[in-house]
Known about the structure:
This protein is 26% helix and 27% strand. It has helices at residues 6-17, 27-39, 129-132, 153-158, 185-204, 268-281, 297-303, 328-342; strands spanning 45-46, 51-57, 63-68, 73-79, 85-90, 102-106, 112-119, 142-146, 166-169, 174-176, 179-182, 212-217, 235-239, 242-243, 255-260, 285-289, 309-317, 324-327. Strands 1, 2, 3, 12, 13, 14, 15, 16 and 17 form a nine-stranded mixed beta sheet that branches. A six-stranded antiparallel beta sheet has the order 5-4-9-6-7-8. Helix 1 (6-17) packs across helix 5 (185-204), helix 5 (185-204) packs across helix 8 and helix 6 packs across helix 8 (328-342). By secondary structure, it is of the alpha/beta class. It is globular and about 65 Å long.
Amino acid sequence: MSAFDGAACLEVFRSLLAIDSTTGQYRAIEVWTAETISRLGYEPILTRKGGVLADLGGEGEPLVITAHLDDIGLMVRRVNADGTLNVCPVGGLYPFYCVMENVRVHTADGRVYTGTVCRTPNSIHVTEEELRSVAGDFRTNVCVVLDQPVQSAADTRALGIETGDYIALEPRLSLSGGYIKSRFVDDKACAAVLLEIMRAIREKGLPLKRKVYAYFACYEEIGHGTAWLPEGVRDVLALDIAPTGPDQNSDEHKVSIFAKDSRFPYHSGMTAELRETAKQAGVDYVMDVFTPHYGSDGDGSVLAGYDIRHAAIGPGTANSHGYERTHIDGLRNTYDLTMAYIRA
């Protein structure tokens, strides 16, 4: 098996995190990914709606391995009278997981402004007691405060900020003791793993047991990342995070093989193949079920009507859709299982 290069994978992860890509804001991340794929020696194919596909070689009924590039984030709903921004979530982002986070506001004409997600009122010392325990709500008591001397809606609009502008959260990557803490481990860590797999295949001339496509989707967080597939695809394998929790088997040091999510079970035959591959390759894995609020890009392909088998694997990850944490061992085991599954 080709050895996993953790340092190289983390550098790719850093590069992906540096590009804001709230779902729908796909162009910059798409260009970077296509250029990276080209440098690895593959021919990138851009989808019409946003996404990058590459043929990794091999013969036979195709397998698509997918990892998504889009992040959860915010959008300007309206400009408030005091110049702050009323916002709405893009994807599954909740106020309690982003209040006090630094953000970047991207205007339609390409300008970028920084700011902070704040409660209103925003200082606990001057907040009435009854308001301290009120949950944050994007519609009523959470806003984005700009790092600009604005005092009115006109001031903010003069900056070029308007309804529909994308707002990206600061990732805040931190590495310590093998642990990886950052927003958007979901799913840029898995995208980095997939790019490392592609690099190893090309640089070492590794043979594949079947035709394999890599698909970097840009709409997974809202459910239709892989709603289109290349002709003849038989199987879809999604690389995505495995949320940890009190009732979960998933572990940040291991790769999880998904048995079921909140929509439906994964294909039993393909899941069994992955489980047997993990055993044979000595990969540290667990089986897990993710309910009630989880789905992967393979689900989107099934719901789009494709006659495929679909499965999903990924590193155990804490604090999903918040300030997430996994471990380099989890990425290594995800890499090893994927590589063992596609190698001849």
